[in-house]
């Protein structure tokens, strides 16, 4: 991605009201100059989500979600930074440009644009073929599955004709080169160089991004060909594991209900929508991924998993529950009767029967513990240890340990000891801490925190601190990395170039800062004095080493010179005390 002009980012943020944007998704109430409400990124009982319009950031005291208005927009929609920035730029009328020419980025952008247009044309091609005489086989299948015209239209279902070159000819007529369609995953080129349609004789399920653009397809055979389902390959606009089928259609209902129904099949999603469960979406042919969970977290705080009741479905539900719970979201698992899937259940027994299963669904942790309880004590401890390691926030660990111990019949103290001993056994080969190293490291980290906190809360002082050599005194990798970004942009907004953990630290510094201006001025002078003392101490140590060498070499002239330098350093140090 090319570097975006920081001026454009600043213009976007200036034209956006963070409170108004957040209020599209969160019920905010004003309290003492701040706006607060329930966090949209995790489940909670008391509102802990705060928006500071003066400083332009949000922060959750529960899950520690944090950032500026652009971060909120990207996280709530599950978008990458560049994609979210582009959408906001269009919304407020700001032209995005890069700070310098980037041919590679421009070419990538061109390919992405062409691929989106190609997929748009492909969707229209497949829809037209569904309604043509050649699409009767697909129409008959949809009638057999009892899918309504409304659902078919809403999800833009189509049909790929049983023709090796049908779409290829159509794309060429629209001005696209075959190579472009190969890169987009719509055509295939074999080892001999022959190019032909990827999808032939199949019912087509377009996959949309959150902007409503078609980015890929799922396809079900209607002629008995293998595989039964064929999905798009990765392309400039589609990464497997990043998207969810039907999320675009379901997003508003999910945001309203604060819960998503997550299932496995295309037709399961369609049937759920047809029967009134319009908050349903589906994984795309692979196991649920962390990226997909993050997308859901942008819309809701709870997920109901609706997987098949066979062994594979139970295993998928276990793993999916772990991932969702680790994100701080609530989860429940709908257990389908043996031999039933969502589609067959809804058509055989109706929406009320499914709603009863939904109401009776155990929460995700209870479901996990039901399965884990069948294992040995050692396996239970290993599972709990691995699960607890996945948690986004360490604060969730203790209450979960209590609940796990109670549910599995362990005494809590003993269970905690087992977890600790298990960690100890796995870390026996870890590197020992050298004598004295821990105390020195703690002192260094304390200084890092003090210096960084001041710099974050007083960005107008960053240039002066850089001139005084603050960066030379930082010891931790985190502190040095964050400082480099600040020092390279003194007095400027750097939020857009920070990593997520750096943004969280940044906002927490601002959120907990209570110092008045006169206190900040006094602290600045204290830091300046400290920096000068540290540099003088470094000079003194270097001079001492040089003096020892001169004495060893018998260089009397150099010894006298260095003694004078040392006296001058001591005098300046005394002045600093």
TrEMBL record:
The keyword Electron transport does not apply. Residues 258-341 form the Toprim domain. Its cofactor is Zn(2+). GO terms for biological process: DNA replication, synthesis of primer. Binds 1 zinc ion per monomer. GO terms for molecular function: DNA binding; DNA-directed RNA polymerase activity; zinc ion binding. It is an enzyme of class 2 (transferase). A zinc finger (CHC2-type) spans 39-63. It comes from the Bacteria. Residues 96-116 are annotated as: Disordered. The keyword Signal does not apply. It catalyses: ssDNA + n NTP = ssDNA/pppN(pN)n-1 hybrid + (n-1) diphosphate. Its EC number is 2.7.7.101. GO terms for cellular component: cytoplasm; DNA-directed RNA polymerase complex; primosome complex. Keywords: DNA replication, DNA-binding, DNA-directed RNA polymerase, Magnesium, Metal-binding, Nucleotidyltransferase, Primosome, Transcription, Transferase, Zinc, Zinc-finger. CDD domains: TOPRIM_DnaG_primases. Contains an N-terminal zinc-binding domain, a central core domain that contains the primase activity, and a C-terminal DnaB-binding domain. RNA polymerase that catalyzes the synthesis of short RNA molecules used as primers for DNA polymerase during DNA replication. PANTHER family: DNA PRIMASE (PTHR30313). Belongs to the DnaG primase family. Monomer. Interacts with DnaB. This is DNA primase. The gene is dnaG.
